[in-house]
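YM 10:42: Nuclear transport factor 2 family protein sequence, as discussed on the call
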Amino acid sequence: MKKVFTLFLLGLLMAASPAWAQRKSTKSRSAKLAASRATQEKSERTRRAEAAAKLSAAMPISDGPEAAELMRIEEAWAQATIRNDAETITHLLADEYVAVNSQGMVTSKADVLAAIANDEVKCDINKPFEYIVRVYNNSGLVVHNTSFRGRLNGNITSGEYRTMHMYVKRNGKWLVVANQTTFVVPERITLVSKDDNRKRKRNKEVAGQ
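YM 10:58: structure's back
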C-alpha cells in the first residue's frame, strides 16, 4: 500500500512539473522582456536628453521680454486646449491662422474653433518642453516638443509631437499665424499612461474593499 501511494505521489509530481516549469519559463521570459524594454527606454531617454542639451546649446532661447512673452503664450495656449477654452484661443490666433497637422491636413482658425464648439477635440495632457524661441523684430518663431493625450473625432490619440509656431506682432500684441506639427514618438506619453493606469487600478482596488 505504501509503495502504491508513493507511486501515486510521483505521478502527481511528474504531471505537475511541466505546467510549473512552463509557468516559470513564461515568467522568466516576461521578466527579461520587461528588463529589456526598461533598458531601451532608459537609453532612449538618455539619448534624447543629450540631443536636447546639444540643441539647446546650439540654439538657445532668445533673451528679453519678447521671448518670455512668446513662451507665456505657448503655455496659455496649451492650458486653453485642455479647458477647451475657445475664447482664449480666439484671441491668440490671427484671423489668417493656418495649421498643418501631423497627418498633413491643412486647417484654419475657423476649423479650430468649430472643432471645439462641436466637441470634436479634447485633451487631458498637453505639456510643452524643449523650447527653441527666436524673435526677429515683429516676427517670432517657437519650436518645442509636446507630450499630448486626447481625443480627435472620437479617436484616442497620444504621443510626443514637435510643433513649430510662427508669430507676428500687431498693435503691440503677438498672434500665432501658422502652426506645423510632426509626430515624434509615443514613448513618453506611454509611460505617463502606464502611471495613470496604475493609479486607476489602485483606486478601484481601494473602492472595492
